[in-house]
Specification:
about 325 residues, mainly alpha, two-stranded antiparallel ribbon, two-stranded antiparallel sheet, about 5% strand
């Protein structure tokens, strides 16, 4: 991945194109251009057979410049960096700041491409691409452009197991403002891959991440709670807060709780090692006494509305 900074100071992570895909795209573009050049040349030669040799030579040079030089420039300008070969390989030419290219970028790339691709059979372009850190040829360097990949293979995303149900909502009062994004990413990646790690290696990683997280939040893992379960519970609390902040309290109200059936199957206590389960649930609170109006008068419940017999029913029920 290559990080580019836009004019609005936004960092973009783009994947530069590799040399094989770029070479294949150039070969496809050259094949199309050569076929078009041959067809047009045969047509022009048949139409201008009566002209002298100097005129035919001038027409040949003009067709070469228009088709093999001006054609790619026009195609890249109109398609914003996607020629036929790049479109087939899933590539695109962009500026250094990630924006679409314009005519001047395509012109510089096309003119220098005549020297480093056509005249030297691509040797200069290959050498400059191998030397450059982002695989840029000389035309890209002088034009301030970069060839990136538009189509990236879809990677399999792991599943983050939920914490045990008895840990849901236990860290609702934790201050998470001092935890950096890099630590959150490391915790998430560990939870996604902890089933694939060696138990000893995974245990040491969990302890180290739990220690870093406790140092940032000021609240260590409770006694008897495995480090992996502690990490999963705090990560879920953070996701619940982000969802509540993004969608409002109503839609994220149930985000802090975990279904006991799903948690027992995937993220139950067995998934995170031995732990101390709560033995008794807290006693339910006593029912609140009925509210009283001022001066001790009892508040009567509103009487149910019954429609009158002498009036036809309209289907509308007035509010109580």
């Amino acid at each position: 991945m290559s990080e580019l900074v836009t004019g609005e100071a936004v960092a973009l992570e783009l994947r530069p194109a590799k040399l094989p895909s770029r070479a294949l795209a150039v070969l496809l573009d050259l094949a199309v251009a050569v076929i078009a050049y041959i067809v047009v040349t045969l047509g022009v030669v048949a139409a201008t057979a009566s002209l002298d040799e100097a005129a035919q030579t001038a027409l040949s040079i003009a067709m070469f410049v228009l088709l093999l030089v001006g054609g790619p420039i026009a195609v890249e300008t109109l398609s914003h960096g996607r020629s036929l070969g790049k479109l087939a390989c899933g590539l695109r030419v962009v500026r250094d700041d990630g924006g679409p290219i314009r005519f001047r970028h395509a012109l510089v790339r096309g003119l220098i491409g005549v020297i480093e691709i056509l005249m030297t059979l691509g040797v200069v372009a290959v050498i400059s691409s191998l030397v450059s850190a982002r695989g840029r040829r000389l035309g890209d360097v002088f034009a301030g452009t970069l060839v990136v990949r538009e189509r990236i293979p879809l990677a399999r995303t792991g599943f983050v197991p939920p914490p045990p149900p008895w840990l849901a909502g236990r860290f609702s009062g934790l201050d998470l403002s001092a935890v950096p994004n890099d630590l959150w990413l490391a915790i998430r990646q560990y939870l996604m891959r902890m089933q694939q790690l060696d138990p000893q290696v995974g245990g040491r990683m969990a302890e180290r991440l739990a220690t870093d997280l406790a140092a940032r939040t000021g609240a260590p893992a409770p006694h008897g709670v495995p480090p992996a379960a502690y990490l999963a519970a705090v990560l879920q609390e953070r996701q619940t807060r982000e969802a509540r902040r993004a969608f409002g309290n109503g839609s994220a109200a149930g985000g802090g709780s975990v279904d006991a059936g799903a948690g027992g199957a995937v993220g139950g206590p067995g998934a995170y090692g031995p732990s101390v389960m709560p033995t008794a649930a807290p006693a339910p609170a006593a029912a609140a006494p009925p509210s009283r109006a001022p001066y001790g008068t009892e508040v009567a419940a509103p009487a149910p509305h019954t429609p009158s017999d002498d009036r036809p029913s309209t289907g509308f029920v007035p509010p109580a």
